[in-house]
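queue> pop job 88
queue> type: inverse folding (structure -> sequence)
queue> payload:
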């Protein structure tokens, strides 16, 4: 019997997923979550359409094995069409959710592949709803016997519908960041990650690389597909997510450590990104 897409990915990464389970619905998914560290990894051609969501961790560079390599920040997603191999380079530890479309003959899967021009190249994009739904789907399936099957089916439908909107250009944003531009910004990105607790403005960041604020905002948006303010907010939310999942620190302290002015503001931003509150995440992780 031929190996499944998730078996091929696990073998390529050289690690087992921290979670692996099936999400029944239309479409049906096999869902996995990985925490891993590697420098360079080639993913072979997979037999089914696959969505990879970069939840957090280090920056990633990659693309088709025969194409141009681009660099991406945490928060991006990528559609890997069947039969398309890819190669990836990691700057450090990575947290990722993988969703494999298990029913290759379903109308939903065929519709997405058609919008991808029958899937000849990978498709990287940024969309908050896709990321949040994928993270919530993995979290819900991770509850084991307490899983809410109706919620799982709804999340699966949301993911498929929103990906269709992204491919049609109605939501999200396809990203093709320039490696050279991202390299110019590496200093400021590292500075942001080390200083999330303090106030951060576009003018302050521009001064770190010796550019005018307008030029910096233009360069940043072209390289990363989002504004500096949105990137900082995203990094703060991701730090809060890691602290909530990995520690027992009070939520108010997590908010402060992540750069939020209050616990209530963290809750507002967290719900907008993940569809749940920090307290709900804490309960789900227990």
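queue> result:
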């Amino acid at each position: 019997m031929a190996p499944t897409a998730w078996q091929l990915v696990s073998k390529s990464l050289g690690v087992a997923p921290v979670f692996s389970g099936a999400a029944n619905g239309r479409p049906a998914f096999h869902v996995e979550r990985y925490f891993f560290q590697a420098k360079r990894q080639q993913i072979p051609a997979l037999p089914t359409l696959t969505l990879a969501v970069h939840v957090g961790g280090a920056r990633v560079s990659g693309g088709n094995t025969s194409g141009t390599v681009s660099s991406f920040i945490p928060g991006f997603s990528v559609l890997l069409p069947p039969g398309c191999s890819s190669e990836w380079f990691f700057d450090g530890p990575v947290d990722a959710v993988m969703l494999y479309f298990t029913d290759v003959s379903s109308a939903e899967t065929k519709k997405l592949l058609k919008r991808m021009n029958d899937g000849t190249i990978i498709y990287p994009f940024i969309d908050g709803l896709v990321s949040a739904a994928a993270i919530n789907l993995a979290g819900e399936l991770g509850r084991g016997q307490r899983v809410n099957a109706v919620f799982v089916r709804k999340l699966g439908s949301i993911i498929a519908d929103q990906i269709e909107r992204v491919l049609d250009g109605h939501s999200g944003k396809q990203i093709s960041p320039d490696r050279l531009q991202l390299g110019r910004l590496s200093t400021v990105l590292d500075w942001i990650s080390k200083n999330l607790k303090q106030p951060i403005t576009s003018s302050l960041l521009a001064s770190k690389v010796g550019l005018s604020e307008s030029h910096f905002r233009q360069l940043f948006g072209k390289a990363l597909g989002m504004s500096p303010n949105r990137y900082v907010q995203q990094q703060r939310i991701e730090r809060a997510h890691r602290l909530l999942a990995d520690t027992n620190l009070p939520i108010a302290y997590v908010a402060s450590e992540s750069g939020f002015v209050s616990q209530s503001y963290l809750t507002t931003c967290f719900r907008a990104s993940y569809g749940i509150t920090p307290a709900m995440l804490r309960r789900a992780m227990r």
